[in-house]
Amino acid sequence: MSAFDNLMGFARDTVALGQVAGRLGWDQETMMPRGAADQRAEEMAAMEKILHTRKTDPQVGQWLAAIDAGELDPVGQAQLREIRRSYDRASKVPADLAVEIAKVTSKAQGQWAQARADEDVPAFLPVLEQVVALKRQEGQALADGGDVYDAMIDDYEPNMTAAELAAMFGAMRPRLVALREAVLAAEAPQRLKGHFDPAKQMRLTEKLALAFGYDLHHGRIDKAVHPFSSGSGHDVRITTRTSELDPFNCFYSTIHEVGHACYEQNVDDAYLLTPIGGGVSMGVHESQSRIYENQLGRSAPFSGWVYGQMREAFGDFGIDSPEEFYCTVNRVNDGYIRTEADEVQYNLHVMLRFDLERALMQGDLAVKDLEAAWNDRFHADFGYAVDKPSNGCLQDVHWSVGLFGYFPTYSLGNVYAGCLNKALRQAVPDLDAQLAGGDTSAATGWLKENLQRHGGLYAPRDVVRRASGMDPSAEPLLDYLEEKFKGIYGL
User: Fold this and answer.
1) Residue 81 domain-assigned?
2) Do the Cβ atoms of 107 and 124 come closer than 8 Å?
3) How far is Cα 149 from Cα 136, in angstroms, rounded to an integer?
4) What is the pLDDT of residue 305?
5) In a domain, 154, yes or no
6) Contact partners, residue 175, CB within 8 Å, separation at least 6
7) Per-residue confidence (pLDDT) for residue 226, from 0 to 100
8) Of the candidates 271, 301, 321, 323, which has an alpha carbon nearest to the alpha carbon of residue 458?
9) Per residue in 93-115, is it b (16+ CB within 10 Å) or e — as a string?
10) pLDDT at position 339, please?
């Protein structure tokens, strides 16, 4: 066998083991007994030790050195690119550090969940101190003298930098703030009121998942504190959550996670369990979840179909028409929670986290001062005070599990989604008529053909550029938001 064949065989096993580790993480957040946390931390650490050993195996370096990339086809070159990237990054991180991060973050996730339930920030800070210290060490190793936070971002969005993101966010903020101020000064649509049976919500959420093409033969839907998607290929899982007073939380969290899940399910089967067999970056991943949730799921025609489904499931709930329901679905609300934020304010939530975690990684913000820094920034950005920690710095799971550099990809995904939506609307001119009947197949089919099936074949910005026909820019997103919300609010 050639060096490339040997390398790919080895990489396939490594990817498969990574999927097993991911399944342990899924179980921890959905079904694991609470008392198993310490044992699970040991199991996760053991898996990380095996994975790190494989990713840094000297034989991988020898195979890479023996392969002439010019002799490979584009798929082979992409596989080689991803294996080399993984090998180079993993080789910079000491094995004992990688194992310790896996162990501590596994424990921290459970401690975060308990602290969140108890509204007890001080109980969480000691383990967060450990996570931040360990992740700084990892970032310093990866940065090799460069910017530590850039090294963190590169885990989730290759070749993106904090400076580029800061410039993008700085350009977006004035138009977002101006739109927010105009909307909040106008008369707001009515709120959704009533009590909505969680069991009925779950039945309807499955119908919504199927409407967006989620394959339940190769997937499942469960509940978790924080909705998420995991897995790839033929085993992709999502979670959602229910609130008796807010079924939109359940429905749109589900549609969001289905966007992630369908991306993974729709990658070309030829890439299954290979380095390019999943989404190419978290920014591109978020583009799929956000376009499913917002440009499609919260559109006037599709929300009209959802209105009919809710009437069928819950009876009369006080909204008299699909047009009123569309405005309620897109109501701009005061609120604390990023995952529940409307489209106008969502990116402001992300920018807050981006600035705070960048300061944490650069040593400009101490963990003990995080809650105060969060509360001060939130009040400055949104005009009202955080009322409790679960609505403030304890609301997200990300920092407990070490996902520093992840948050900015949410807004980057919105930017990518704006570009994709503009191209999709041009490619499928009768899309609204289809969405009005609950049929998303033209939209999801276009996304599968033009982006999802490629997996990691192309670099992140390249795959968005190829699909949308434009260089990624925030302008289409901002134009879409202004047109939509000025229409809803009569501005």
Assistant:
1) yes
2) no
3) 9
4) 98
5) no
6) 478, 482
7) 80
8) 271
9) beeeebbbbbbbbbbbbbbbbeb
10) 85
Residue 260 assigned as binding residue: yes
Task: Read off the pTM.
Answer: 0.94
Q: If you write DSSP's letter for every residue of 116-164 in order, what string do you get? A: HHHT-HHHHHHHHHHHHHHHHHHHHHHHTTS-HHHHHHHTTSTT--HHH
Q: Is residue 152 situated within a structural domain?
A: no
Domain boundary among 146, 172, 204: 146
Q: In degrees rounded to 5, what are phi and psi of residue 131?
A: -60, -45
- Residue written as token pair 């925030």: 474
Cα-Cα-Cα-Cα torsion 309, 287, 174, 472, nearest 10 degrees, comes to: -140
Counting the structural domains of the chain, the total is 2
Nearest 10 degrees: CA dihedral of 453, 456, 459, 464? 30
d(CA 249, CA 256): 10
* Residues 141 and 169 both lie in one domain: no
For CA atoms 129, 133, 139, 143, give the dihedral sign.
positive
257 catalytic residue (yes or no): yes
Q: Is 398 marked as a binding-site residue?
A: no
Q: How far is CA 458 from CA 4, 82, 144, 263, 447, in A?
A: 19, 10, 26, 14, 15
Q: Domain check: are 180 and 251 in the same one?
A: yes
Residue ranges of the chain with per-residue pLDDT less than 50: none
37 and 73, same domain (yes or no): yes
The domain of 109 spans 3-146
Give yes or no for a contact between 242 and 252, defined as CB atoms under 8 angstroms apart.
no
Q: Which of 257, 264, 293, 371 is catalytic?
A: 257
Same structural domain, 65 and 196: no
Of 265, 252, 294, residue with least CA distance to 420:
294
Residues 247 and 139 reside in one and the same domain: no
Q: CA 210 to CA 220: how far, in whole Å?
A: 11
Q: How do residues 145-175 score in pLDDT, each as one tens digit?
A: 999 999 999 999 999 999 999 999 999 999 9
Could you tell me if 169 and 219 are in contact, meaning their C-beta atoms sit under 8 angstroms apart? no
Which helix H or strand E contains 455, and what residues bound it? none
- Evaluate whether 412 touches 160 at the Cβ level (below 8 Å): yes
Let me know whether 243 and 340 are in one domain.
yes
Q: Is 256 annotated as a binding residue?
A: yes
- Return the sign of the alpha-carbon dihedral for residues 118, 122, 125, 127: negative
- DSSP at 48: H
Instruction: Tell me, yes or no, whether 361 and 457 share the same domain.
Output: yes
Contacts of 86 (CB under 8 A, 6+ apart): 55, 275
Strands 219-223 and 229-232: unpaired
Domain membership flag for residue 151: no
pLDDT of residue 397: 92
Q: How far does the chain reach from its first CA to its final CA, in angstroms?
A: 66
168 and 265 both lie in a single domain: yes
- CA–CA separation, 57 and 47 (whole Å): 15
